[in-house]
Design goal:
Layout (H helix, E strand, L loop, with lengths): L17 H16 L5 H9 L6 H8 L4 H4 L2
């Protein structure tokens, strides 16, 4: 990696707004808590459509999973 900034062929993704995030977070948490999706799967899915900020990613990762619940 040269650190050079290059133009990508695809346009930059829009920022995922806090309003959109707040609306969808309960649904994502339900998927994670039920074991249907992992944190990484949710982050990857959302990141394919919009850009998440660090706080939003942290909030998704903070969701309790079936594996971590008994730990």
């Amino acid at each position: 990696d040269t650190g050079e900034i290059t133009q990508s062929a695809t346009p930059a993704l829009p920022v995922y707004t806090d309003e959109q995030f707040a609306k969808n977070l309960p649904m994502w948490r339900g998927l994670i808590e039920s074991g249907k999706k992992t944190h990484d799967q949710i982050i990857a899915m959302v990141s394919s459509k919009a850009t998440l900020n660090e706080d939003q990613i942290s909030m998704i990762q903070a969701t309790v999973t079936p594996e971590t619940e008994g730990a």
